[in-house]
Design goal:
- The structure is a single chain.
- By secondary structure, the protein is of the alpha+beta class.
- The protein has 3 helices and 7 strands; from the N terminus they run H-E-E-H-H-E-E-E-E-E.
- The strands form 2 sheets. A 5-stranded mixed barrel has the order 3-4-5-7-6. A two-stranded antiparallel ribbon has the order 1-2.
- The longest helix is centred in the middle third of the chain and has 26 residues.
Length: about 180
């Protein structure tokens, strides 16, 4: 039984690494996408987020490896199965979190300055009261944007302050400190 688990783990782990390398380095995405026709609109969905195939391979590979190790060490088979399933689920959740973190700054090129309206952010470079500009990090459509900013109330805003975009003025956003 331990040898079968070892081969299951090696094969699924190898496939997982191959798929990860292909998707990270080459942009190749071999996950399942579903196209839905809703009325006159096409809706393209990805049911897994992380990817159904990659998630399943992660779960099976880690579970099989942990079960193999526990079986070889002489643990009770019921406990081996339970710990193996929990460790596979934890590995899947960890991988899901890491991919979300990695793709957090993925850029959506279809945005305009008007999309910044009423979005919250954080001041990166101090915004002076009058005249010059500072820089604010604003979340727009799921990506962090670094925008030139001026004070909406003509008050100085320190670095690290939380702000909200009140208006757009050409290439600048006018921000107001949250809580003022």
């Amino acid at each position: 039984m331990a040898e079968i688990l070892m081969w299951v783990s090696i094969i699924t782990g190898g496939l997982l690494i191959l798929l990860m390398l292909l998707s990270l380095l080459g942009g190749l995405d071999l996950d399942v996408d579903i196209d839905l026709d809703v009325g006159d609109t096409d809706v393209d969905t990805d049911p897994g987020g992380l990817g159904v195939i990659k998630g399943a391979l992660t779960f099976v590979s880690v579970s099989a490896w942990v079960m193999k190790i526990l079986l070889v060490s002489g643990k009770h088979p019921g406990m081996v199965i339970g710990i193996g399933l929990v460790s596979g689920a934890l590995a899947f959740l960890l991988l899901h979190y890491l991919f979300k973190l990695l793709l957090k700054n993925e850029e959506n090129v279809n945005w305009s300055m008007d999309d910044a309206m009423f979005q919250k952010g954080k001041v990166y470079v101090r915004i002076p009261s009058i005249g010059d500009t500072g820089i604010a990090h604003i979340d727009i459509k799921g990506a962090h944007r670094e925008l030139k900013a001026r004070s909406f109330e003509k008050k100085e805003i320190a670095s690290g302050a939380m702000v909200v975009v009140m208006d757009v003025d050409g290439e600048y956003v006018l921000v107001q400190e949250v809580g003022t």
